[in-house]
Amino acid sequence: MHVNMSSIAALLVTASSRLAVIAFSTRSVAPKFAARALIARQIASGPMPYDDDKMPIYALGLNIGMQISQQTDFKSLLEEDELEILMTGFSDIVKGEETVNPMEVLQKYGPSVNALLRERMEGIVERVKKDGKEYIEGFLDCNEEAEKTDSGLVYYCMKEGTGASPVVQDEVEVHYHGTLTDGTVFDSSVDRGATIKFKLGQVIKGWQEGLAMMKEGGKATLVIPPELAYGDAGSGGAVPPGATLKFEVELFKVNP
């Protein structure tokens, strides 16, 4: 779920004769170690809904929907009847069947849309943050050997390494398995079956601090609060705004 509240474009209330599209500007906050999760939820594969000659058009619709959903999770923000109204507005524009002047609608109701989304997003973010804090408390209660650093990172050693510890300038090779506090897997090199290499200084602060506490050959669990992860912005459709993240990380190699 992703609405970058700091960079929501005003609903293009311009005098342009061209139709203003409601555009949410998204700052790139994807993990620089290449999180490839597209959508957190898993969908079972089923039969194709159309014949092969029509499936390319359906695929086009899926592509548009996925791009929109990666920026803004309207399913979480809107009620069912509101989603129907949203889809009606979208359909009217695509089909050229609008019965009102789109520019007039945007000029009149654009500020209300921004206010509505901001209010609902703030409520969701605060709830997600609260759930994260409770998760961290529960994790510490259940894992006596886990330690919470001054920054708020929770570090739990699963296997002690014997090699070098990385610094931010180093390249590291790791396996990792990232989940939300509800257990949803949002990114996993383990699931992809391939380790990944990256400069430690290129990733989120929670990783920088956590991996620096590890040694080659070690494995640890990192529970990372939002301020050390993706903050109130989240990351695409995979990491909700304000989310606390849990990573199991295995450090294979440190290259200075």
UniProtKB/TrEMBL annotation:
EC annotation?
Answer: 5.2.1.8
Which stretches make up the PPIase FKBP-type domain? 169-255
Gene Ontology molecular function: peptidyl-prolyl cis-trans isomerase activity
Keyword Isomerase in the entry? The reply is: yes
Give me the reactions it catalyses.
[protein]-peptidylproline (omega=180) = [protein]-peptidylproline (omega=0)
SUPFAM superfamilies the record matches: FKBP-like (SSF54534)
From which residue to which does the signal peptide run?
1-23
Give a yes or no for keyword DNA damage in this entry.
no
Keyword list, A-Z: Isomerase, Rotamase, Signal
Among PANTHER family, the record links this protein to: 39 KDA FK506-BINDING NUCLEAR PROTEIN, FKBP-TYPE PEPTIDYL-PROLYL CIS-TRANS ISOMERASE FKPA
Query: What's the protein called, per UniProt?
Result: peptidylprolyl isomerase
